[in-house]
Amino acid sequence: MEDLIKLLVKPLVTDARTIKVTSEKNQDQIKFTLWVPQTDIAKVIGRGGKMITAIKNLLKIRAIKENVFVELEVKEA
Fold first, then answer.
1. DSSP secondary structure string, the chain?
2. Are 68 and 29 in contact (CB under 8 A)?
């Protein structure tokens, strides 16, 4: 799923190499942390949080197919 997160976020940031995704796995739950530079964090979140909500919804769809619970947190790198 990390590849899906990177695929969705790459077009939103100025330098794709600055994206970092970490994950913590507990039984059937995965918590992803997306590290984005301060200059690009507004683009990733979007106006009113619409962009990050869309990204989370796509992750949920993939998580349902894999029978896991997914959480995504965005942090400033």
1. -HHHHHHHHGGGSS-GGG-EEEEEEETTEEEEEEEE-TTTHHHHH-GGGHHHHHHHHHHHHHHHHHT-EEEEEEEE-
2. yes
Q: What is the pLDDT of residue 7?
A: 96
Cα diameter, the chain: 35
Cβ-count burial of 43 within 10 angstroms (0-12 exposed, 13-18 middle, 19+ buried)?
middle
* Residue 74 Rama label (left phi>0; alpha psi -120 to 50; beta): beta
Dihedral angle computed from the Cα positions of residues 72, 44, 16 and 20, in that order, rounded to the nearest 10 degrees = -30
Q: Residue 28's pLDDT band (boundaries 50, 70, 90)?
A: confident
* pTM exceeds cut of 0.85: yes
